[in-house]
Amino acid sequence: MKETVCNFGPEKRLFGILTTPDEDVRIPNAPIALILNAGIVHRVGPFRIHVDIARQLAAAGFSTLRLDLSGLGDSAPRTGSYEIEDRAVLDVGDAMDFLQRETGVDQFALLGLCSGAYNAHRVAVKDKRIVGTVFLDGIVFRTFGYYFRRFTRYFRYRFWRNAIRRRLSSSRGEVDAETSAFNESEFFDVGLNRDVVVEQLNLLMHRDVQMLFLYTDGYDDIVGRSQFQEMYGLRPDDGQLQVEYYPKSEHTFRLIENRRAACDRITDWIVGRFAKPMLIGR
Q: What residues does the AB hydrolase-1 domain cover (predicted)?
């Protein structure tokens, strides 16, 4: 594989790392995956999970661009007056325009964790070049089932064991700067309307956008895979709409085994969705 530094956008103020596969494994016409910032962590992602994903996808034949949105990492702030969400849409649009000119590929998949998932959602709704999305701990709404399952967690041994471990790690100063920066970030608008999000997800379904939702036990606003259908009235399946829940994973995938499980699932999903002739060049 090859990793190349890229500058693009207005005055080439945006920065990214393009990871491309070797020619003998490259899948012709496959969508390029764009990996968006999580919180204020730059393009490597929390505990370098974005690097792991990009390199694993390259080994499977897919190109990826890990980009820093304007004002994050090595990307300069975007000039002009824009809301945070609008800047993200413009930045990702510039990245896709750049890749389309350089490679001729006009279809893309978006991957994002937390605020990255929120931004990926907004871009996918607005841009028809998006054919696939991976949302890690993205937009959620609390439901009756959430409160019930949340309450019953307090009676489980594993809940108290993990709580004690987190407290001990914090008291020993083991919370690293990267996790702290991630937790301090402004993730996304808390005033989101569930009906609007449902309408947008149905729009993506109608456009045949392939979607994978990954949730972790460390994400406080969701408890269990069943909450997805409670939130959106959409039933996950083995096709266009897939949902996974990791009951032993922290929100930032701090542990190696959790990162490996997420990377494997994402790679398998992208290969299954976009390495098939029927899905290429749709």
A: 34-194
